[in-house]
């Protein structure tokens, strides 16, 4: 017997009549039927692309390692395709959807479950810390999401920087963004996002997802990425906020040397000469570019510049 189903639905499941229904929204024709039933039209402003591939849905839930003890926060449930899978696996699910037109659809597609709460809200304005306290007694939660590509970075970094208790995030993002998150020093994908994400989490791309797995099809490839949130940061710094100001300045003008990037940033009270001196202390060439420095080297540089 699976968690989440109401008693009558559980009985039907056991008798085998709900086997097809459980994966219904991962089948394209059933997604189309729901959209037609509610005369739903995709909103470009919300970056809506619904998953229509059961194999990908299985991969996401497996990668997230959801157990019956977990509280899961889902961002952007759409019509509830992945939410059904999460409700089957987790103790409780909160699905946060910004588009009010999807709320009655979610109420329909998730009606068989008694372990899901649907919230019509902008995730960037939600007090997730309060939710963690109320729903999970302050213990780390798991986040699963098929993120709108136009707002992927603000959502992920917003969750990290809020310092709410997170165990992991398993999210669908644009493939290029996933590669940037995982990138290492010296590669063309490496940049401020790579450093910021790797400061907060271990990064693993668990699946590449082609456009034909979505409705409507996006113009780019996608990837499922798992971010295992760190209990302890990989580097210790005097001033975390200052570290990220240094990192951003170092990549604002990628073709320029690091000392020029930092020296030209009006938000940093650091001169080119001070940056050059700090680089010499670290044994780094004065003409080095930001893409060559590791997170540990940026931390050391930041501490020197703090002085």
Written description of the protein model:
The chain is α/β, with parallel strands linked by helices and 307 residues long. The chain folds into 2 domains: 7-229, Rossmann fold (3-Layer(aba) Sandwich); 240-306, Helicase, Ruva Protein, domain 3 (Orthogonal Bundle), CATH 1.10.8.100. It has helices spanning 7-14, 19-22, 28-37, 54-64, 81-89, 103-109, 128-136, 152-161, 175-182, 192-200, 240-252, 258-263, 272-281, 295-306, and strands spanning 50-51, 71-75, 92-97, 116-120, 141-146, 166-174, 201-209, 214-215, 222-229. The strands form 2 sheets. It has a 7-stranded mixed sheet with strand order 4-3-2-5-6-9-7, sandwiched between helices. Strands 1-8 form a two-stranded antiparallel sheet. Helix 8 (152-161) runs parallel beside helix 10 and helix 11 (240-252) crosses helix 14. The longest helix has 13 residues, at 240-252. Mean pLDDT is 90; it is low at 13-23.
Brief descriptors of the model:
307 residues; Helicase, Ruva Protein, domain 3; 2 domains
CATH superfamily of the largest domain: Vaccinia Virus protein VP39
CATH architecture call of the largest domain? 3-Layer(aba) Sandwich
Global shape? elongated
Unreliable spans are 13-23
- From N to C, what is the helix and strand string? HHHEHEHEHEHEHEHHEEEHHHH
Reading side by side through the largest sheet, how are the strands ordered? Answer: 4-3-2-5-6-9-7
CATH fold type of the largest domain? Rossmann fold
Helical amount among residues, as a percent range? 40-55%
First-to-last CA distance: 61 Å
Class per helix and strand makeup: alpha/beta
User: Strand-residue fraction?
Assistant: 15-25%
Q: CATH class of the largest domain, please?
A: Alpha Beta
Rg, alpha carbons: 22 Å
What would the average pLDDT be, to the nearest integer? Answer: 90
